[in-house]
Write a structure and sequence with these properties.
This protein is of the alpha+beta class. It contains four helices and six strands. The chain has a six-stranded antiparallel sheet, with no helix packed on it. The relative contact order is 0.19. InterPro entries: DUF1398 (IPR009833), YdfO-like_sf (IPR036696).
């Protein structure tokens, strides 16, 4: 079984979106199968085998999520983040600004899916591995 502390230690090595694939590989080795992160405060629930879950605490004061999704701007900001041009906090602020409520990472499929406040899928990306 994995702990939030293990996951947070792995996440501390992430300086930008460019580091995300390595982080995913590391936490998959711990036994994480998927996780769901809420943009409003970065609270995350991690899922493992046999119904095992752990939940992190909020990481920052709550952001206001815009009701209207700006998918084009979101994709532009996401690409910038993936190139290492922004840090995690800026990425979360960009998500809130463009109407992204949460993302779900599937470590078996190596995908990250972004959702709006109505639960609509906005974008699914493959994570390089």
């Amino acid at each position: 079984m994995f702990t939030v502390e293990q996951i947070e230690a792995a996440h501390s090595k992430v300086n930008s979106g460019a580091d995300f694939p390595g982080y995913i590989k590391e936490i998959k080795q711990f036994g994480v199968r998927s996780f769901e992160t809420w943009v409003k405060d970065s609270q995350t629930e991690y899922f493992g085998e046999n119904g095992y879950t752990v939940e992190s605490k909020p990481k920052y004061d709550e952001l206001i999520i815009e009701n209207k999704v700006d998918k084009e701007l979101f994709i532009k900001q996401l690409k910038s983040h993936q190139l290492g041009e922004t840090d995690y906090m800026k990425f979360c602020e960009d998500c809130a600004e463009t109407g992204i409520e949460k993302w779900i990472v599937d470590l078996d499929q190596f995908t990250c899916t972004y959702y709006d406040q109505s639960g609509n899928k906005i974008l699914t990306e493959e994570i390089p591995h």
